[in-house]
Amino acid sequence: MGRNLEYPKRARNTVKRYDSRGTYDAGAIHKIINATPVLHVSFPPGSEDPFPALLPMIGVMGSFEYPSADINEPLDCYLHGYVSARLMRLARDSEKGIPVTIAATQVNGLVLSLTPNSHSMNYESAVLQGYGKPVEDTEEKVFAMELITNKVFPDRWANTRIPPDGAEMSSTMILKVSIETGSGKIRQGEPHDEAKDTKRDDITDKVWTGVVPVYQTFGEPIPSALNKVKELPQYIGSHLTQAASKNKQRAAEAAKEP
Questions:
Q1: In whole angstroms, how far apart are CA 169 and each of 8, 57, 135, 145?
Q2: Which domains does the chain have, with CATH numbers?
Q3: Contact at 8 Å (CB) between 60 and 78?
Q4: Given its phi and psi angles, is residue 54 left (phi above 0), alpha (psi -120 to 50 degrees) or beta?
Q5: Beta-strand (E) ranges in 144-187?
Q6: 186 CB contacts (<8 Å, ≥6 apart)?
Q7: Distance (Å, rounded) from C-alpha 185 to C-alpha 192?
Q8: Distance CA 126, CA 7 (A)
């Protein structure tokens, strides 16, 4: 079996605190990015404002040059935005592309310990750094829009009015981020209490410890006022059932010691 592709360890992406939880495995990091509904993207504001700009955005990993590329292979991150957004304007004016940091976090459980200081969370987090440029090629733009749409809801692209019309294409911008570095950090397992507390019956006899699983689930779909489709499409119902079950199992697995 071949060695998994890893992002190079550099000063900006090396995990230092609890470094045993760190990962540089490209596949693991890409999966976290793709599984997180909303990413947070930081970039220089392009002015004398001392505060870095930060936006919640929808994004997905993919490769236009190699559409069949596996999640473990080198991929770009496509971010969805509006044509007049500051991020897009700054990226358009930058020769190399605007430097961005992309962060994703998924919480899988609340870890309740004997003392407040030992409480924690089970989580999967990832951070990517790279340079973003607007996608100008129409074919690549549509490719990215399809990826992003299907990340929000699988198979949704093919079950809508497509392709986007001229006005929609003009108002939508896709930022393609070429990744330079990345890292992930994962915590799973039970509470890790200090021996000084676990040996005290006066504490262990009265304080409940354990993990409360946290996972995303879905409610009953509510049709819009203009909806004319009487039966809920199978691809919607199937995804809601399967995703909820998968998320629940994932949170339960995260509560176990690695």
A1: 36, 18, 11, 10
A2: 19-254 (2.30.110.10)
A3: yes
A4: beta
A5: 172-187
A6: 21, 23, 28, 123, 124, 125
A7: 17
A8: 12
Contacts of 212 (CB under 8 A, 6+ apart): 109, 110, 112
d(CA 230, CA 155): 19
Q: C-alpha angle with apex 256: 252 to 258, nearest 5 degrees?
A: 130
What pTM does this model have?
Answer: 0.94
- Cis upstream peptide for 74 (omega within 30°): no
Residue 218 contacts residue 232 (beta carbons within 8 Å): no
* pLDDT at residue 2, as a whole number: 54
CB 147 within 8 A of CB 60: yes
Instruction: Round the CA-based radius of gyration of the chain to a whole number and report it.
Output: 21
Confidence at residue 1, expressed as pLDDT on a 0 to 100 scale: 46
Backbone angles phi, psi at 105, to 5 degrees: -140, 135
3-state secondary structure (DSSP) of residue 93: helix
Enumerate the β-bridge partners of residue 186.
Answer: 124
Element (H, E) at 152: helix 138-152
CA 179/CA 29 separation, integer angstroms: 12
pLDDT value of position 8:
94
